[in-house]
Amino acid sequence: MSASQTSWLILAWCLYFLLHSLLASISVKQLAQRKFPGLMPYYRLAFNAQSLILLAAPLGLTLLWRGEPLWQWQGAASILANVLALAALALFFWSLNFYDSTEFLGLRQFREHRVEVEDQERLRISPLHRFVRHPWYSLGLVLVWSRDMDAALLTASLCATAYIWAGSLLEERKLIRYHGEVYRDYRKLVPGLIPLPWKRLSRDEARRMRERAARQSRDEA
Predict the structure, then answer these.
(1) For the segment 125-146, what is each residue's pLDDT rounded down to a tens digit?
(2) Strand 69-71 to strand 149-150: parallel, antiparallel, or no bridges (unpaired)?
(3) Residues 25, 26, 31, 36: is their CA dihedral positive or negative?
């Protein structure tokens, strides 16, 4: 892959991630709510649709400019890499049981004609959240870095990793804004992206933290 192609690929991924973060931000949602309140029930649906459609550009360039491998997992390392990737996929689909998929997709907001900005900002502490604060991001990193790499895929993987790290920080700002001390205490106990054996929540601790967050939400309602 030439230097020019590398530059274009970095630009494509950066623009995609920048737009994704901008549209997911509270400030843009609040602006849309003020200016176009009648469109808010469709916001999440439109957000998900544009995320998929616009992904075609950077992903297409990545696939188009793939070349000779820079490294390939071999032997036992290849088996381990594929096992980790399959485990990450399995954990992702299992974790969907702890989310409201209709709300995540935007179907609930559409059906119930919701106009609230905060529909995606509730505090979730699923089994995976006991070990990392952003389990989907962590699983995404496993999937990205368990693949064989060429120049194009390495460029895309570095861009994605930078976005995952930055995105986790932006998401935490939103969660602290909505949940205050509850989330600050959660941050002290659980790592962000990489599990650490000595930092995790027990089942009872997770249950108590969920109950505390629920009480806070009721008190603020």
Answers:
(1) 899 999 999 999 999 999 999 9
(2) antiparallel
(3) positive
The Cα–Cα gap between 58 and 201 comes to: 38
pTM of the complete model: 0.88
Listed in sequence order, the residues at least 6 apart from 77 whose beta carbon sits closer than 8 Å to its beta carbon are none
Residue-by-residue DSSP string for 89-148: HHHHHHHGGGS-HHHHHTHHHHHTT---SGGG------TGGGT-S-HHHHHHHHHHHTS-
Check residue 45 and give its pLDDT.
93
The average pLDDT across 44-61 equals 94
Closest Cα partner for 165 from 4, 5, 10, 17? 17
Angle 75-95/135-145 helices, nearest 10 degrees?
150
Contact residues for 177 (Cβ-Cβ < 8 A; gap 6+)? 26
How confident is the prediction for the chain on average, in pLDDT? 90
Give the containing element (helix H, strand E) for 86. helix 75-95
| Nearest partner of 120 among 133, 132, 108, 138, judged by Cα | 108
Task: Retrieve residue 19's tokens.
Answer: 């737009």
Largest separation between any pair of C-alpha atoms in the chain: 59
* Per-residue DSSP letter, 68: S
> Which pair of tokens denotes residue 141?
């990193």
Position with higher pLDDT, 120 vs 175: 175
Residue 121 contacts by C-beta under 8 Å, 6 or more apart in sequence?
Answer: 26, 174, 175, 178
* Count of other CB atoms within 10 angstroms of residue 110: 15
